[in-house]
Amino acid sequence: MPTATPFKAIGKGNGFPFCLETVNVLDRGDGNAYDHWVTLGGFKKTDTGSPTQSQIDISLQKAMALFWNAHQITGTASLDSSYNTASVTNSRNPNTTQLQPSQRICLSSGFYDNNIKYSSTEDEFNEMYFFVIPVLLKSGNNFLGYGVKNKISASAVTFADEFASVEIGSIASARLDGIYETIDYDYITLGGIDFVCKARVGAWAYQMATADASNLKAYDSNRYAEIDSLDFYTY
How wide is the angle at C-alpha 226 spanned by C-alphas 223 and 228, nearest 5°? Predict the structure, then answer.
């Protein structure tokens, strides 16, 4: 893990340099509740009652850690060698310089890094995408804690509906899940932070596919996607 230069940021008085969007877990966009959600403090949809103040405080600490100090995700996004596409093993774009923690004080909603490699025809690709947007999670008028909007993901794609992907975040929707996809959801912990994971493989290969959200991987005979670590800057 790289070492960052210490700094101070005044921000908006909320731990971030911008006001946070609110996500209502009772409405995923069609009037129905999100199928899976969890705050960064570990309070999730399947829990009873309300989050404790400690869980809310921890969710803020984790949201700040992700926004200010996250460095990269590592894993694998790969295609069969016949596709002539190099594998991707981390989210750091080799053609750009990711914002250092002290440079994030000027951001207006979140930050991202995106490492993608195309085939020679540019029709197929492997990608690791690291997009951190901290949000407030509410259930109606009840504040649940802090989360992050997707997407943090690894994907291997050969066509619009032929892919393997693993995606983590604080909310997950089954609204657009295809009937010919193999899909799995689970609550996981990565880098000491609670997320919900959506693993899926589509579409024609669904009968010989594996989606394993608890282990953050999805694959078939031609496509493989996995997330295995979340790294942070140190000081």
Answer: 160
Q: Record the pTM.
A: 0.93
> How many structural domains is the chain composed of?
1
pLDDT at 207 over 80: no
| Closest among 59, 16, 53 to 38, alpha carbons compared | 59
Q: Which domain holds residue 115?
A: 21-229
Q: Which helix (H) or strand (E) holds 157?
A: strand 152-159
Question: Between residues 180 and 34, which one has the greater pLDDT?
Answer: 34
* Structural domain includes residue 159: yes
Q: For residue 11, which of 98, 104, 100 has the smallest C-alpha distance?
A: 104
Question: Has residue 234 been placed in a domain?
Answer: no
Burial (CB < 10 A; 0-12, 13-18, 19+), residue 81, is exposed
Instruction: Determine the Cα–Cα distance for residues 81 and 129; give it in Å rounded to an integer.
Output: 22
Q: Give the pairing type, strands 21-24 and 125-139.
A: parallel
CB 202 within 8 A of CB 162: yes
Residue 15 counted as domain residue? no
Q: Can you read off the two tokens belonging to residue 181?
A: 């996809």
- 3-state class (DSSP) for residue 62: helix
- Residue 3 pLDDT greater than 90, yes or no: no
